[in-house]
Amino acid sequence: MVTCALILLVVVFAIINGQPFLSTANVRNMFLAGSIMLILAVGVTYVIITAGFDLSVGSVLVFSGVVSMIVMRQVGGDGWTTALIGLAVAVACGLVLGWVNGLLVAYAELNPIIVTLGMFGAALGLAQVATGGQDLSGMPAAMSQFGVGRVLGVPWVVVIAAAVAIIAAIALHSTVFGRHTYAIGSNKEAAVRAGIPVRRHLAVIYGLSGLLAGLAGWLSLSIYGTTNISGHSLDALTAATAAILGGASLFGGVGTIAGTAIGNAIPVVLASGLVIAGLQSFWQQVVTGAVLVGALYLDRLRRIRSLRRSSAQPG
């Protein structure tokens, strides 16, 4: 159903907007924007499968990008050494912030929505303090070349996003780590009785979500050349929408990376089509919110159908 909705959206916008929507430049921009969002959505999918939620990924992306840019400007140089230092810093920042979320959720047993909402504000506030609220630029030339670089005609950022999704899918469906993730989301108490280190696992899951947000922050810098502090306020909701549209359930225990990848394309196509159609950015936020509500309703319907099937099974 989600795939059909995606195809319908593409057809509708192709008819309404014509060549600008289907142009090579616009398709490339959609893939680039979708790649950043897919990396975020992969981490959020893991969190949702454990019956958790992460509202902080957009701010963690911004904070990681800001610290990375500051460090690279301090180190200086236009080569790959500086760029890789920036990458390590961005990933480390994301990992630490995500891990803090995980510790508070797993060991302090705080509500994940409240914890990650608090991190959303804290990370964004720290980024604004560090920059005075101004976007930073001046990354190494090697990093800029990477942002526009391609391999076999495919942008490097798209290749990395695809690699992240494939690795995450394999880990989720073919490893003990993945089975434990599903088990915790399906029944946390049963997972504890089965000997699964639930608290440690949850801390790792939130750390992973933060790590991927840090990676997305560095990749975003390489594409756009600036920190774009105010441009990621809806990232967490968009990533959650992608995961839920793709089949992940807020009740936990259900979700796939392949489904998330398909679900991720819907808000990306919507945003691009609405921009080309000339709709104001404020209305784009309204549409994003409406799609999220629709995704939640779809999740509820799936949940009801699943419960009915379970109750209908004999003995």
From TrEMBL:
Location within or outside the cell: Cell membrane
The protein's name: Ribose transport system permease protein
Taxonomic placement: Bacteria, Bacillati, Actinomycetota, Actinomycetes, Micrococcales
Glycosyltransferase is among the record's keywords: no
Listed Pfam families: BPD_transp_2 (PF02653)
PANTHER family reported for this sequence: ABC TRANSPORTER PERMEASE PROTEIN YPHD-RELATED-RELATED (PTHR32196), RIBOSE IMPORT PERMEASE PROTEIN RBSC (PTHR32196:SF72)
Protein's membrane topology: Multi-pass membrane protein
Main location: membrane
Keyword vocabulary terms for this entry: Cell membrane, Membrane, Transmembrane, Transmembrane helix
InterPro entries for this protein: ABC_transp_permease (IPR001851)
Domain of life of the organism encoding this protein: Bacteria
Spans through the membrane: 34-67, 79-100, 112-130, 151-172, 203-224, 236-262
One cellular-component annotation, GO: plasma membrane
Gene Ontology molecular function: transmembrane transporter activity
